[in-house]
């Protein structure tokens, strides 16, 4: 290939995309100028590097690499308990991890640095590319390279028609196929038509990258302004949306401004498949709420389900869990009721084997002395036996529904540690200052209770009665702005991506020259982005159409003929799509419009050039034209 | 209720029988493919070496095709559809595709056809197994890893057969695909087997159909892309050796096998097209997952391990696509990225489910 050829080819392919030109990573040459000028040079160099494809590539790679540790090491933002367990197990590693922010990867300095750099790079890339694209939309397709045989797809034929007729026919074909085209004046022995199509690819690509930006901003805003808390409510209980009502709460970066509302849990239902392979599957699973806005607004009823939250203003109330709360009554050593009410137990497995604690801080013992009483135990909605048979311990449930509920308790007395100031887990006992009740044989006292049963402590120390069962449901209440922006960004990104990956941008050139024997030699060549599988196919279609005179093969040669014979007005001088082409007999029929789907299929469909088209009858021809 | 339960149990049993039968037929297809390759090795393939011998002009010509057009006066004439000469842009190697596993050997070809027929049969059994499983649990069969794995390989085989039906040159993929499908099903029925059972309510949503089915389909197609990429790496090295006769030459076994594969550029193109076509769908899969997470857990993105690895996979594929568009990163480097991206997908699929705890471990609410 000669160097002229090469240069022309490069020119022909230039601006086929808006990708930044990749130049070798050169550090700026020492200018020997003032310090200020040198600084500017360096800054410019740095900016060019940052916005190059290569650096974007490296940053993307780093981003995926950087996300890895966060999925393998427990994260504060996801599961604080797991982090604490990890700390206990790995005494030496934990401080190092802390130093590297490995428990907070996604908000760490280094992770933020990667994605901020990436998005600066993205912005620095989008802006010039958008300008470039606007420029391309106004420019004409580049001139034909001298040597068309060098292009990736090439074909040639001879025809009786004279060169100007062929070029006019080409214009018609290009127009019908929605190419942008430009006619170069006839030079020595013939002229050329350049055409280009598939600009939507670039538009899609830009849309995708801009949408990513929107998505990131929405995500960041959402996280900054997000307020979220959890609340466990027993049937009949209620909630008003104020800070103190939450079981746990995560504030936004700027302090919470909570929507004002409240609700009560009227009913919670969970029914389960009783038998068969799906035994235990939740069949129905919902909470019926009554809610109101403001302090005491109008009451509304609503059913909340797992994938169907309640939305009030910008706040959503999600049903995230459920369980059982045995209702117990505890009488103290004096026979007085020391505690009565439902006690939520937390499920530990799919069959709702649950654990919990009953704490009775106001208790007098058999001698009337003030003390504290506690029970710790397991609850099974459907008693399924003991996991430790010999000691009758470790009860498990065999079904999540309340078919044979049983409560299994140990009893303690002493200091519950409620005054220590350290927040306590309500579902667990801190047994440090507690003394366990012992049975006569010296073994810890324990008992399994069915609803209605009473657990009697020795020496008249008190009783506990398992009255009945209630259900509880836990809710997550979150207020997060920006969700719709994120969704819009995501959808735009997908649309843009589809355009960017499924549409081909390609150029086609046609050149006519007078042959030796008075016939016209037509050359047609195409160039696409590197993966233009359909290009040869399209070129062949174009060639067929041109040989029939610029009308789709379907239409009678009558019109094709007249089309080639008439006109001539556009033979000289550049014409582009925008200019209003004079009416031509051959082109005024509604040629089959190019189906949009064709472009979309371009990349997915492989070239099937080895598949010969069957010789078809004339009736089949409209198809041929439309398929193109 | 009990009658229904019994039918469900029956269906579950039928499903297992079907999956085992499918494995047996896949095994036969495997042997038939091996036969195809063995018999194919008898033929002397010289196309690749010939094309790469310096001085040899090459260029894949599209065959001439005739097109009938109406002529003036209503008659018809047969018009020659012009020959379109194509060449690899950027002055890459111009090598024709290898002849395929059978290598032009007639007996090998018969074995190959038998293998494809067996694969079709096995696929029917396989699909039946997945379907009965779904019926037995009255939901989408994507509740646990056993179900993921069986559906995953089913979609991979379906895509492969789809490519074959569409007339694509993909039979070279038969042997590696059937082998890995056997492995996958073997793992599924032995290690990952779970009795058909319940679904936690969080999974019980129509998003399960959209999100999980898409994830499985994307994975299966990414897998086909990855197979093509691996073969591309071998074939590319092979072509590079042939193109440089003074350097070390491929061994006779390597030569026999690799010469029959499609050209490196064809494999590369195939892999790119598959990966690029799947990428928007993978993006949509993640977005669908986020929408679902928003309605189930109250946040669309929470850096749960499964989410993290979907994201990593996505970024890795974006990396690959960027590499393809960046001068100096095309070819082998991009191929390594594609393989890394697929490994991320696999890790998300197996690794995260097995080794990492998270909301997606489906341990219940
Ligand atoms: C947030 C990170 C980014 C993601 C996820 C991303 C993703 C993508 C994807 C999927 C494509 C399609 C590839 C193709 O057409 O084959 C693409 C193309 C492109 N990206 Fe990005 N990109 C990101 C950042 C950037 C940055 C920072 C730049 C600036 C240098 C950039 C420049 C480009 C260019 C120029 C193309 C078009 C290449 C072509 O025309 O083939 N991207 N990007």
Give an overview of the whole structure.
The complex is a heterodimer of chains A (628) and B (365). Chain A contains 13 helices and 24 strands. Chain A has helices spanning 3-13, 35-50, 53-72, 80-89, 93-99, 109-138, 163-176, 199-225, 483-502, 535-547, 557-565, 596-601, 621-627, and strands at 153-159, 180-184, 192-197, 227-234, 238-240, 248-250, 261-272, 282-293, 300-305, 310-312, 315-331, 337-342, 346-347, 354-364, 370-380, 383-388, 393-397, 406-414, 434-436, 446-449, 454-456, 463-479, 506-514, 520-528. In chain A, the strands form five sheets. In chain A, strands 4, 6, 10, 11, 12, 21 and 22 form a seven-stranded antiparallel β-sheet that branches. In chain A, strands 13, 14, 15, 18, 19 and 20 form a six-stranded antiparallel β-sheet that branches. In chain A, helix 3 (53-72) runs antiparallel to helix 6 and helix 6 (109-138) packs antiparallel against helix 8. The two termini of chain A are 32 Å apart. Chain B has 365 residues and is mainly α. Chain B has helices spanning 2-40, 47-52, 106-137, 145-165, 174-190, 206-243, 252-258, 264-297, 305-325, 332-355, and strands at residues 65-70, 76-81, 85-86. In chain B, a hairpin with a 5-residue loop joins strand 1 and strand 2. In chain B, helix 1 (2-40) runs antiparallel to helix 5 (174-190), helix 4 runs antiparallel to helix 5 and helix 8 packs antiparallel against helix 9. The model of chain B is unreliable at 54-79 and 361-365 (pLDDT under 50). Chains A and B meet through helix 3, strand 1, strand 11, helix 9 and helix 10 of A and helix 1, strand 1, strand 2, strand 3 and helix 8 of B. The complex binds protoporphyrin IX containing FE. Protoporphyrin IX containing FE (HEM) sits between chains A (17, 19, 51, 53, 56, 60, 118, 121-122, 125, 205, 209, 212, 500-501) and B (276, 318, 321-322, 324-325).
């Amino acid at each position: 290939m000669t160097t002229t050829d090469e240069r022309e080819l490069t020119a022909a392919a230039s601006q086929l995309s808006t990708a930044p030109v990749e130049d070798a990573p050169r550090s700026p040459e020492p200018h020997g100028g003032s310090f200020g000028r040198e600084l500017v040079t360096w800054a410019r160099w740095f900016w060019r590097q940052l916005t190059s494809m290569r650096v974007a590539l490296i940053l993307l790679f780093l981003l995926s690499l950087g996300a890895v540790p966060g999925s393998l090491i427990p994260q504060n933002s996801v599961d604080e308990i797991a982090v604490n367990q990890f700390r206990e197990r790995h005494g030496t590693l934990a401080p190092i991890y802390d130093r590297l922010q490995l428990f907070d990867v996604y908000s760490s300095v280094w992770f933020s640095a990667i994605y901020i750099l990436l998005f600066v790079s993205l912005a620095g890339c989008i802006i010039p590319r958008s300008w470039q694209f606007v420029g391309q939309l106004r420019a004409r397709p580049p001139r034909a390279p001298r040597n068309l045989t060098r292009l990736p797809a090439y074909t040639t034929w001879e025809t009786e028609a004279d060169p100007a007729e062929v070029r006019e026919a080409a214009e018609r074909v290009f127009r019908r196929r929605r190419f942008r085209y430009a006619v170069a004046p006839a030079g020595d022995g013939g002229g050329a038509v350049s055409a280009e199509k598939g600009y939507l690819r670039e538009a899609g690509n830009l849309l995708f990258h801009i949408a990513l930006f929107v998505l990131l901003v929405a995500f960041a805003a959402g996280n900054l302004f997000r307020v979220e808390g959890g609340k466990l409510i027993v049937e009949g209980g209620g909630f008003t949306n104020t800070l103190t009502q939450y079981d746990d709460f995560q504030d936004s970066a700027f302090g919470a401004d909570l929507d004002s509302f409240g609700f009560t849990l009227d009913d919670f239902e969970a029914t389960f498949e009783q038998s068969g392979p799906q035994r235990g599957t939740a069949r129905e699973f919902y909470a019926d709420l009554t809610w109101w806005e403001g302090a005491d607004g109008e009451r509304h009823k609503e059913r909340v389900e797992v994938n169907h939250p309640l939305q009030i203003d910008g706040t959503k109330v999600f049903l995230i869990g459920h369980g059982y709360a045995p209702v117990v009554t505890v009488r103290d050593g004096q026979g007085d009721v020391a505690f009565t009410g439902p006690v939520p137990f937390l499920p530990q497995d799919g069959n709702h084997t649950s654990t919990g604690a009953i704490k009775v801080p106001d208790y007098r013992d058999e001698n009337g002395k003030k003390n504290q009483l506690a029970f710790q135990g397991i609850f099974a909605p459907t008693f399924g036996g003991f996991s430790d048979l010999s000691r009758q311990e470790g009860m498990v449930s065999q079904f999540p529904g309340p078919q044979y509920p049983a409560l299994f308790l140990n009893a303690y007395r002493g200091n519950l540690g409620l005054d220590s100031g350290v927040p306590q887990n309500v579902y667990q006992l801190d047994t440090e200052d507690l003394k366990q009740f012992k049975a006569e044989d010296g073994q810890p006292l324990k008992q399994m209770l069915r609803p209605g049963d009473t657990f009697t402590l020795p020496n008249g120390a008190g009783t506990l009665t398992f009255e009945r069962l209630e259900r509880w449901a836990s809710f997550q209440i979150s207020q997060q702005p920006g969700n719709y922006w994120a969704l819009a960004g995501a959808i735009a990104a997908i649309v843009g991506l589809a355009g960017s990956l499924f549409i081909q941008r390609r150029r086609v050139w046609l050149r006519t020259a007078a042959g030796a024997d008075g016939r016209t030699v037509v050359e047609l060549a195409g160039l696409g982005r590197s993966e233009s599988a359909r290009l040869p196919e399209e070129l062949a279609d174009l060639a067929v159409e041109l040989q029939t005179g610029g009308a789709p093969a379907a239409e009678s040669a009558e019109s094709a003929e007249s089309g080639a014979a008439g006109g001539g007005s556009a033979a000289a001088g550049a014409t582009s799509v925008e200019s209003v082409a004079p009416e031509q007999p051959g082109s005024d029929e509604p040629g089959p419009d190019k189906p949009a789907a064709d472009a979309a299929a371009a990349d997915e469909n492989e070239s099937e050039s080895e598949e010969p088209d069957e010789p078809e009858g004339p009736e089949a021809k409209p198809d041929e034209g439309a398929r193109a | 209720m009990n009658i229904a339960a019994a039918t469900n149990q029956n269906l579950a049993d039928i499903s297992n029988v079907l999956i085992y039968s499918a494995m047996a037929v896949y095994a036969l297809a495997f042997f038939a493919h091996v036969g195809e390759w063995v018999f194919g090795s008898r033929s002397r393939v010289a196309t690749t070496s010939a094309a790469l011998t310096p001085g040899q002009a090459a260029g894949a010509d599209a065959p001439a095709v005739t097109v009938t057009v109406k002529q003036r006066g209503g008659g018809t004439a047969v018009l020659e559809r012009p020959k379109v000469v194509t060449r690899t842009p950027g002055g890459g190697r111009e090598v024709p595709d290898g002849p395929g596993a059978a290598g032009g050997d007639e007996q090998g070809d018969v074995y190959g056809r038998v293998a494809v027929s067996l694969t079709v049969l096995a696929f029917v059994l396989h699909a039946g197994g997945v379907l009965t499983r779904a019926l037995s649990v009255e939901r989408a069969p994507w509740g646990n890893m056993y179900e993921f794995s069986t559906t995953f390989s089913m979609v991979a085989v379906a895509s492969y057969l789809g490519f074959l039906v569409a007339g694509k040159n993909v039979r070279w993929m038969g042997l590696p695909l059937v082998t890995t499908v056997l492995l996958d099903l073997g793992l599924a029925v032995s290690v990952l087997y779970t009795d058909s059972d319940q679904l936690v309510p969080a999974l019980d949503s129509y998003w399960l159909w959209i999100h999980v089915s898409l994830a499985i389909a994307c994975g299966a197609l990414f897998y086909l892309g990855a197979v093509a990429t691996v073969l591309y790496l071998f074939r590319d090295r092979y072509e590079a050796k042939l193109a440089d006769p003074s350097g070390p030459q491929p061994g006779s076994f390597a030569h026999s096998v690799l010469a029959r594969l499609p050209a490196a550029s064809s494999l590369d193109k195939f892999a790119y097209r598959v990966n690029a076509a799947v990428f928007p769908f993978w993006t949509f899969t993640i977005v669908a997952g986020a929408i679902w997470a928003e309605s189930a857990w109250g946040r669309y993105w929470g850096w749960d391990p499964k989410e993290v690895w979907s994201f990593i996979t996505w970024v890795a594929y974006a990396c690959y696509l960027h590499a393809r568009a960046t001068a100096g990163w095309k070819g082998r480097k991009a191929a390594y990225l594609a393989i890394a991206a697929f490994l991320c997908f696999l890790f998300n699929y197996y690794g995260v489910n097995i080794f990492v705890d998270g909301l997606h471990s489906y341990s219940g609410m």
